[in-house]
Amino acid sequence: MNADRKPRAVLRAAINLALVAIILAAGLARAAQVSVETWDEGQQTLTVNSIIQTASESLDTSASIGGERDIYLQWLSGTTGAIYTYVDYGGTSDRFSYTAGDGMKGQVTLQWDGNDNDPINLDHQGLDNVDLTDGGTNDGIWLVILFEDLRAALRVEVYADTQALNWSYAEVSLPRLDPGTRMDIFLPFSYFQTGGGTGTNFTDVGAIAMKIMGNIDAGADVSIDFCESTSVREYGDLPVGTYGAGILSANHIPLGLRLGGNADAESGYPSPSSAADADDNSATDDEDGVTPTNTPWGAGSGGGEVTLAINGCGVAGACYINGWIDWNGDGDFNDTVDGANERIINNYYRTSDAEVARSFNTPTSFSGGTYYARFRICTTSTDCDSPTNSDTNVRNGEVEDYRWYFHPTAVKLISFSATGQAGQVLLSWETATEIDNLGFDLYRRPAGTLEYAALNETLIPSKGPGQVEGAWYTFVDEDVTGGSTYEYVLEDVDMDGTRTPHGPAVATVPYAVFLPLVLR
Fold it and tell me: Residue 22: its pLDDT value, please?
């Protein structure tokens, strides 16, 4: 049996690589784009309030499909402050922004309907037969949201180039997004609903409109980087070759539900990366939603913990989170290793945004090492309960992959004791190994008190830094009082600064007995 394991492993790796090559090639094939708006040309600023309730402007610009960008801004309610929109061409951002003062509600409509110099009335044949699918390679509209502080709705309308008014629309409620973060929204053509007539044929488009409806929360602000027709999904970035096509091709249609602050989309699976960071470096680092906490992790029951940063769940109405760690590094997440299941989070259910800590079992043999992990968030319990692409076109959510390196425990301690002696306490400890250990610190407190105080002024150096062999140590504490009980904590210090406490060890100092000197 052993003789054919290596050929089978090589064959499996070759099959994985071949399938991944197909995935990558498919991603490249559907990367065509039809730009609707980039905001890279033509600065515009419009302002309205309760007195001046509407403002509109048409501007010729090559950054816009059809050569012209129409903006129509409307005041809806509120009497304090103003509502304004601007295109920051030539400024610091090259983006479009909608900003409402506190208590103000409004709506802005952007239209791309050809060069008609009319920002209010839509010419639904103005684009003259634009094919948003680019010959069938594109399947939706991609927008990049860079800021959204309060609830607003975003709606995209696409009009057919016909005499009859046939049009379709897709609408999404935007979850909150902090400055400096990025949220990709992708609206597949299949998500669009019929708004009039027989709906839109996306291969024969005459006009496009986008509306930001800030009538949900007063003071809503939205900032958008670009809008284009393409084909993208949100992928992970586990290493090619180690993991097969079923895992690598898992993806989500991003609509605002995400782990962490960022979520970006790709036209195909990211370039291979053994560090599981290809997606981190593609547009923005969106592998930011899961953090190992309560480290160093221990071995066995409840030994591990991660903190999940959940965003967009409140807007989506509900969300489910699943997580896996490949404990044995065999390229799947289906095993139980030394009592620990590789599925560490099983459909954790939430109805609101939060940062939550989740603990789980680690293998009883766990002592550190390098591990690949995958986490998914989605809106139903069956959409992302597998690490693979068993559910294609998962609506909303995100997949995040990680490679985590945990240093082996710096010190494997055999014993730590404190012995009360006349006028002193003798502290003793023995180690079995001291991998990556710099040294030790000791702390003491009188029993029944709260605060520990440092005993040693400088780090007690390791007797064998970087060695697998252990050593024996002693330390004498002479600053003690007879009849008192003390508690001691020993802390080993790792090469990277990680501190691991041991103890406490407890000792009572005996009273000193003085015998009188009798002269005879």
Answer: 45
